[in-house]
Every structure is written in structure tokens, then in C-alpha cells.
Amino acid sequence: MKNQTILIDGKKTAQQVKNEIKTEVATIVDKHEKGPHLAAIIVGDDPASQTYVASKERAAKSVGMTSSTYRYPEETTEEELLAAIDFLNEDEEIDGFIVQLPLPAHINVDKVIARIDPAKDVDGFHPVNVGRMAIGQAAFVSATPAGILELLKRYNIETEGRHCVVLGRSNIVGSPVSMLMAKKTNPGNATVTLCHSKTKNMAEITRTADILICAIGQAQFVKADMVKEGVVVIDVGIHRIPADNEKGYKLVGDVDFGAVSKKASYITPVPGGVGPMTIAMLLKNTLSAAKKEYY
Ligand code: GUN
After folding, report:
1. Given the residues 123, 210, 254, 256, the one annotated as active site
2. Architecture in CATH of 142-275
3. Distance from the CA of 8 to the center of ligand 1, in angstroms?
4. Of 45, 88, 165, 245, which residue is 20 to 30 A from 65 by alpha carbon distance?
5. Residue 121 forms beta bridges with which residues?
6. Burial profile 71-99: b = 16 or more Cβ within 10 angstroms, e = fewer
7. Tens digit of pLDDT for each residue in 16-74?
8. Could you state, in order of their start, the residue ranges of all structural domains in the chain?
């Protein structure tokens, strides 16, 4: 008989990570040292971005960190935004900050990210942090890939020598998580295949996955016939699909959870899987920035 499927509880794990951070922040503050301070810059009033930033602020405060948000109108120029970044780079009170994405179309996002001091880049988006991560040096790693590795570690999921298939090659998730899974680390030491929109015979490849990390951005893309019995499934997607309930929609991932979970040994739900880990890892990066662990 098939072993039971274990649900990877991202909400509970994120709370554990936040509790550990809270204890460390309290120790710092008890010594009358400056507590970690996370700042966020947000341009315009995209509702999803407002929600993200509000939850980051709430989470930072919940672990005893100082949190501040700098709001700029949609018509802010690139020069004005770069000047705001320079200001935060120089401000010794602020340990780390993020510039919420997406930015308005008239602003060059690469130029903005490049302006952030890598030592304060707690999103891990700056080319210096991406490069250091790629060659195995200490660096801020972006929060979603870091959260995925943290879940694998805390659930004691063996990765060494196993075939890890990553779906999606985005700068924020697919590319970094594929690099991290191949490193001489634990979690890591996996044999990694990175699939994307031009991959041929995707199902043939996914059926050989021991660990399948799905960040392809299509609702319920991964079906049961695309995975083998016992696979570990990490679902990064989050999509609203119409549903016959009060809200008129429900949240689903990149994986057809109902059918795939019957074959999986471990699987992350959506919501409550990878999502909650992201903010927890951002806070972990902010604590590392305050402790000057990498720079
Ligand atoms: N927009 C959506 N997710 C993120 C994130 O993790 N960081 C930033 N800066 N913007 C985002």
C-alpha cells in the first residue's frame, strides 16, 4: 500500500521561523543595541503591492523589528526614486530595504535594483547578491527560493543525489532555486533539470522527478500523469480561479492538487505552503543585514 502523503505546512513553519527571529531580536534589544529596521519603498497604488507591503510591515513588527514604508505617487520620476534609494542606502538606522515591484512602466527596474546597496538588499535582487549566490558565496538569497530550501530542510527531505526538476526560469524563483538545489549544500547536491516554455517532452522529464518545484505561473498545470509515485511537490504558484462559493473564486497553485497529492510523498498546499515562508525569509534576511553577516 502507498505511504501517506505528508502535507508541508508552510504557515506553521513560517511561524516557527518568525518565533526564532523574534527571540533573536529580543536578545539584541535587551542588550540595548539597535533593533533591526526593515524599510519598503512603494511607488503608485497597485492594490496587490499595497497588500504585500502592509503584510511585510505587520510581520516585521510582529517579530519586534522596526518597519517603515516610503510611499511615492505613480508619477514619481526615475531620478526621484533613485534619490530615495540613495537616502536609504546612507541612513544608518535602516538595516535593509526593498523596492516593491512592479514599478510604473516609465521607471527602469534594472537601474533601480542596481542602485540598492547590496549590503541592504534584503530581497536579494541586486546583481552582486545574485552573482555571489551563483558562485556559492554568502549573500542575500531572494525570499521565495530561500523559503523553499527552508521547507525541505525542516521536513528533513533528502535532496542529495536526487533528481530535482524545476518548472520555470524566472529571476526570482526558477533560476535561483535551480542553482541552489545543485550546490554542495544541504538541502542541495541534487541533479537538477530546469524546464521552461520551450522545453520539449516536459511530462517525460517531470515523471522522472524525485522533487518537483513548480514555478511556471499557470493554474493547475501539473497533472497527476506528469508525476511519479512518491514525488515531493513544491508548488510556488498562486492563482485565482472561478469557484462556486461566496467569494466567487478560490486560490490554486501551479499543481492540480487534488489528483497530484494522491501520488506525492510530500506536497505544499496553496494557500499555506510556500507563500507564508516568503515573508519569514525576508525577515531572516533583515536580521542577517542587521548583524552584518554577509557584508
Ligand atoms: N512583488 C512581488 N513579490 C515581491 C518581492 O518579493 N519583492 C519585491 N520587492 N516586490 C515584489
Report:
1. 123
2. 3-Layer(aba) Sandwich (3.40)
3. 23
4. 45
5. 97
6. eeeeebebeebbebbeebbeeeebbbbbb
7. 999 999 999 999 999 999 999 999 999 999 999 999 999 999 999 999 999 999 999 99
8. 33-117, 142-275
